[in-house]
What does this fold into?
Amino acid sequence: MAIAPVLKTGVRKDFWVRIPGPPFHRRGLSAQWPLTLLPVIAAVIAVHSAGAQTPEYRIRDALKVADSLMQTNPLDAHTLNIAWRVYLAGNEFEKALSVGEQMIQTDTSMADTAFFIRSAAAATTLDPRRGARIAARGLAKFPENMTLRIMHAKALEEMREGGESLNRNVPVDSVDEMYRQKLLIMSAMGLPDSVLATIRRGAAEGANRRMLALMALKVGSDTYKTGNVSKRREQLQLALELLLLSNELNPSKDARFLAGASAFLIGKSATTEADQKKDCNLARLARNSFVAAQENVPAGLEAYRSAASSLLDSTAQFSETAEKQIQRFCH
It folds into this structure.
């Protein structure tokens, strides 16, 4: 049996599929189908023309063709690739996972991100532990792939929700790894508020406090830098909460210093706006922020002496301004 050429990209093209019996001319379909559909269903169904919505009877026919192909030419990488995709389309996940492993052993170039993503999705449906293992293998090869990170975290979360426990066959540390993956995803997506909520939940569920603290410090530092440029108080307030939480989970002079710097910028912004609006609440926010700055900035005197000293001098000056505003605006 020969198959040539097999569609491996999203480009539409005409090609022949030869199965036992006469050859049939088919038109290829895009390989960019959702996980639950068949990327090359038309390549293996001898007579039917498939569309975006493949009828169930055509899937059944495709499964029969895939079984026949596997019996006739089980060692050919392209045959394995077609069968793998058909089994995924037909929800024959056990067969798909078995054939998929044969496929990447036959041709290692087929172990791409699509293979790990689709295999992990199928495996998670059967058993989240298997999905976690496949996603972890994919991440070992493609550590920056966001879809694999999401799928890995999803599989781990499903295990937790189902009362499962990770064993030595799963290369992760249960709660810690689940939260680490979640936080990496949220951080990469620029969601510091979600990071803050997730770290608090992780701490409550017993995740490693040092790991959570380091994530809070990293995201808090990034948020502080963004807020320092934008001068938006809500960003600086979020940075302050992340940095204080980091210090609470695992005491750190860096976290305290950056928290103090964030508090100073919040107070400075509130002081300026309070003067414009004659607003008592803003004046009180400024005073409280400067108190927080005075408490935390000194933690950086050893490592960041010049910057910390300058911040403390400015904080003292602005504190006086805030006190005067409270006397003027608060009755």
The chain is about 70% helix and 5% strand.
